[in-house]
């Protein structure tokens, strides 16, 4: 038979382990809205980033599309030129 202190610590450790595993299963089975992503892998609630060239906000989803090559020519010319300037191309 374990002493009272060791039983308490064992119970606490088992409870923490069960809660951790339960939380992971819950998050994987029913992800909250803030974890949903677009088809390009960008989280829905991602704020825009600052364009370093002109200081205007730049949509992260457009940025991901640009790097994946999914942006039609000329559609986002301002963003493309700003990205190219900051990337050194």
What do you see in this structure?
The chain is mainly α and 89 residues long. 52% of the residues lie in helices and 4% in strands. The protein has 3 helices and 2 strands. Strands 1-2 form a two-stranded antiparallel sheet. Strand 1 and strand 2 form a beta hairpin. The mean pLDDT is 80.
Give me some keywords for this one.
89 residues, mainly alpha, two-stranded antiparallel ribbon, 4% strand
Shape: elongated
H and E string? HEEHH
End-to-end gap? 71 Å
Amount of beta strand: under 5%
* Count of discrete alpha- or pi-helical segments spanning 4 or more residues: 3
Task: Please give the largest β-sheet.
Answer: 2 strands, antiparallel
**Structural class by sheet pairing and helices:** mainly alpha
Overall pLDDT metric: 80
Give Rg in angstroms: 23 Å
Share of helix, binned: 40-55%
Low-confidence blocks of residues: none
Strand order across the largest sheet: 1-2
Number of strands: 2
Summary of the model, kept short:
It contains 3 helices and 2 strands; from the N terminus they run H-E-E-H-H. It has about 90 residues and is mainly alpha-helical. The protein has a two-stranded antiparallel ribbon with strand order 1-2.
């Amino acid at each position: 038979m374990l002493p009272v202190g060791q039983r308490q610590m064992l119970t606490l450790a088992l409870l923490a382990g069960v809660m951790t595993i339960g939380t992971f299963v819950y998050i994987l089975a029913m992800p909250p809205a803030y974890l949903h992503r677009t088809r390009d892998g960008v989280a829905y609630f991602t704020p825009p980033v600052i364009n370093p060239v002109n200081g205007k906000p730049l949509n992260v989803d457009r940025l991901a599309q640009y790097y994946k090559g999914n942006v039609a020519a000329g559609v986002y010319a301002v963003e493309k030129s700003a990205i190219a300037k900051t990337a050194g191309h």
